[in-house]
């Protein structure tokens, strides 16, 4: 039965992923002078685009290295030590990952921009006339933002494995005469390496296809492929070239994901894991306590852009006030295009809820299919179903404009097209959170229930569902966050009355004046609040509903 | 009277024949032990009986009714898995009551039945416990209660004690057998462990490479193992190939040990020159401290001890003699001093301790 059910996600992918991307490919090969490889030769002949590819790659590499530098010590702390407030700290440090890119970008602007919190404070203290820190529109701020955004990926993936490594392995190494450094280098590191590499690949892929952060914090000279595609599509209208560039990006991301899925498989198969209780270890000495305390400070410092965002949203003309937020609710200029922030929030939330529903259905079916498929050669379909995660949202939006904006399927102008695009980016998260649970679940449980008289439906409802519920909730959280923050595709597809929060923020930024910057900051704060609320609500529900195993 | 009849059952996975033309029966209330090495098709056979797999050929009849194509829930059979498969998200009550709830039994009845069963497995008062709070033996008993709850017509066990340590296993074995006999349910108990099979089963079915080799009571199997495989799974270690060299009221066989004289319990029916497989029961080997030449009995050999373990009540020795290695257990009381590896020993083999495999020489 499952083998037939898989047709639904396949049809969904076919219509809303393969068809639009295929249309891009056809368009890119169409060129101005008939069918041919002309756009690709143009692309490869133009040093500007080659430099974009090169820049995109190395900024992603540097971002990943910085992410690792922050993430690995944090993963170590979470894996090895027990300290009060650990669970809370872990939840809080995951927050940046579910934050919309535009919120992250705005947070960094609020923290380190020329009118940011840090610069204002320094100017006040030292009586300066100019902001001393000038990293707005620089590579530094892009990389900082990427590290901020991705380090939770490293912490989550690596600490999950690290915390469950059998401590006897390390102890055996020590008994055999290895010192701390040798033990780490020869035993711990090789065991962790697949997790580290696969987490790094994810961080790399996210940095590689980064859009909002680069568009807002970078400025024109720092365009990544994603930004270049956006400019070619939305500003320069050179669609064949945009198509060719999208294809180049697609090939890159598929290769990353294939590698990721191979490595993840190795990480899950090889290491003999122990339950958490069996690995709880290490009484903290003074040095350990200092290290943990230091890491806690670093982790909290990572939240500073979000805090700065709130501070800036509520500071107005030298004091604290709700004026900027209140300003959102008034349409002083009587603009025809004015939308109440409540309407915008409602748009974002309902699209997100629809996205969560679709992602859960599609993701669950695909995850069951992948879990049931044999061990050998499963990384290829795995990576294929994950592909939407790595595809640039701009490319997707662009493909929808070409393919779904005309008969036989004319969805342009409908809100459905937004939800479809969001779900496509969101459902891979549901797969990722479900797969380990499904692969680890003993088939005996289902058979035991069947022998005891449960019908297949009852087996699913009474056995599968309660066991996968926590993973489903995690997937739902991510799907919700992805939809709330989705920016690249929405920007290309959204109609005025369906404006979502990230799009509204971007529009405010495009308008001149302090008032509009204030509106962008306020809207970002609201968006952060909504996502955080959703995150907390789902986490609470999770701990209440299930637990204990 | 046979209540379960299995006839010509086969199942292949790809090129592998997991179950090959299997036929056997079980009487009502009987505890059948299914003995075989891991990977011999025991688990597949159980899954076929439970309806979790469809057989390629063959039939299963229960109480006179053909079960072909019936879904697991329609068969009314119970199956206890190797890893027990207790539902981790339910407490003990939720697990034990699961099958009853599937039968839509009234709530009050369910509570009554569950407490009855928990009493039976000596787990009264554990209804609210979470599965992960239970010890290995407790889980075992909860799984047994869960399997018994819907009053299955046939209960099957897939090596359910495999993961437990020896002492716990021994105590659970007799407890499980007592409960099964008390309930009177017909059961099939799969194991690869001889001692467990002996402790649990009324009758044994030996399975190897998907096929049934021998059936019979444990006593019958010990007295006349059908082949080397059965002999080895029964724990016999001294199995030798030989040729009949002389045959009168006793048989003389040329084997790697030398020439052995064996007693014949029934009709031997083999001529001189025939090839035979024989086993020497380790209980029939005796080490003689007396110098060689002074013992007047037959079957005397010289050997060297290659392995030695002292087990308290006896020595476990491997003795190399001729071209053969023999395994034996010797009571220290019969020895003048200690015995250690590397020492030369003289030993004798009781002609009555020699048995022929393959149905040769079985008293009829």
Structural features, described:
The complex is a heterodimer of chains A (549) and B (364). With 549 residues, chain A is mainly α. Chain A is 77% helix and 1% strand. Chain A has a domain at 324-379 and 416-549: MetI-like (MetI-like fold, Orthogonal Bundle), CATH 1.10.3720. In chain A, strand 3 and strand 4 (409-410) form a beta hairpin. The longest helix of chain A has 34 residues, at 47-80. Chain A starts with a helix and ends with a helix. Chain B has 364 residues and is an alpha+beta fold. Chain B contains nine helices and 20 strands. Chain B has helices at residues 42-50, 72-75, 92-102, 107-120, 136-148, 166-183, 194-200, 218-223, 228-233; strands at 2-13, 16-27, 31-35, 57-62, 65-66, 77-80, 154-158, 186-191, 203-208, 211-216, 239-247, 251-255, 258-262, 275-280, 285-288, 300-310, 315-321, 324-330, 344-349, 354-356. In chain B, the strands form four sheets. A six-stranded mixed β-sheet of chain B has the order 6-7-8-3-9-10, with helices on both faces. In chain B, strands 13-12-11-14-20 form a five-stranded antiparallel β-sheet. Chains A and B meet through helix 22 and helix 23 of A and strand 6 and helix 3 of B.
Could you give the topology of this structure?
The complex is a heterodimer of chains A (549) and B (364).
Chain A: H1 2-5, H2 7-30, H3 38-45, H4 47-80, H5 86-98, H6 101-112, H7 117-126, H8 139-162, H9 167-175, H10 180-208, H11 212-217, H12 225-235, H13 239-270, H14 276-279, H15 286-302, H16 304-313, E1 315-316, E2 319-320, H17 323-328, H18 341-372, H19 379-390, H20 393-403, E3 405-406, E4 409-410, H21 415-440, H22 443-451, H23 456-485, H24 488-493, H25 501-510, H26 514-545
Antiparallel strand pairs in A: 1-2, 3-4
Chain B: E1 2-13, E2 16-27, E3 31-35, H1 42-50, E4 57-62, E5 65-66, H2 72-75, E6 77-80, H3 92-102, H4 107-120, H5 136-148, E7 154-158, H6 166-183, E8 186-191, H7 194-200, E9 203-208, E10 211-216, H8 218-223, H9 228-233, E11 239-247, E12 251-255, E13 258-262, E14 275-280, E15 285-288, E16 300-310, E17 315-321, E18 324-330, E19 344-349, E20 354-356
Parallel strand pairs in B: 3-8, 3-9, 6-7, 7-8
Antiparallel strand pairs in B: 1-2, 1-4, 4-5, 9-10, 11-12, 11-14, 12-13, 14-20, 15-19, 16-17, 16-19, 17-18
